[in-house]
């Protein structure tokens, strides 16, 4: 029973998203659930690459915007180099790419 509880706790922790400077950090495994959680309010998602200089320049501005908009709209980011299929599915061809999701789809 203890092993089962530990496994459940581990799975919940892995599915939970973390925040960096107010920006929700997404992964391929939690992306759709987190987008769906913001079904009515929407979520802005930055698809980035860690090595991208433009992405690095955007990071502090994006974090500032996330803080300013907290409670109104969620700003999130996903490392597109780690979620290539997801990035391709959403038409990402360069970095950074910012897309706004509402009602589970890009608008």
Automatic annotation (TrEMBL):
GO MF terms, alphabetically ordered: protein-disulfide reductase activity
Signal peptide (from-to): 1-17
Alphabetical UniProt keywords: Signal
GO cellular component terms, semicolon-separated: endoplasmic reticulum lumen
Coiled-coil ranges (or none): none
Keyword Chloroplast: no
Origin superkingdom: Eukaryota
Transcription listed as a keyword: no
Domain Thioredoxin as annotated: residue spans: 6-107
InterPro entries named among the record's database cross-references: Thioredoxin-like_sf, Thioredoxin_domain
Pfam families: Thioredoxin
GO biological process: response to endoplasmic reticulum stress
PROSITE patterns, alphabetized: THIOREDOXIN_2
PANTHER family associated with the record: PROTEIN DISULFIDE-ISOMERASE A6
Protein's UniProt name: Thioredoxin domain-containing protein
Lineage of the species this protein comes from: Eukaryota, Sar, Stramenopiles, Ochrophyta, Pelagophyceae
């Amino acid at each position: 029973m203890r092993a089962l509880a530990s496994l459940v706790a581990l799975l919940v922790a892995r599915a939970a998203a973390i925040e960096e400077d107010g920006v929700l950090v997404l992964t391929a495994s939690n992306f759709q659930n987190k987008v769906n959680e913001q079904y009515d309010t929407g979520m802005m998602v930055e698809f980035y690459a860690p090595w991208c200089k433009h992405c690095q320049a955007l990071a502090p501005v994006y974090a500032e915007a996330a803080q300013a908009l907290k409670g109104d709209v969620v700003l999130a980011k996903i490392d597109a180099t780690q979620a290539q299929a997801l990035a391709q599915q959403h038409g990402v061809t360069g970095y950074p790419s910012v897309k706004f999701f509402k009602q589970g789809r890009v608008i």
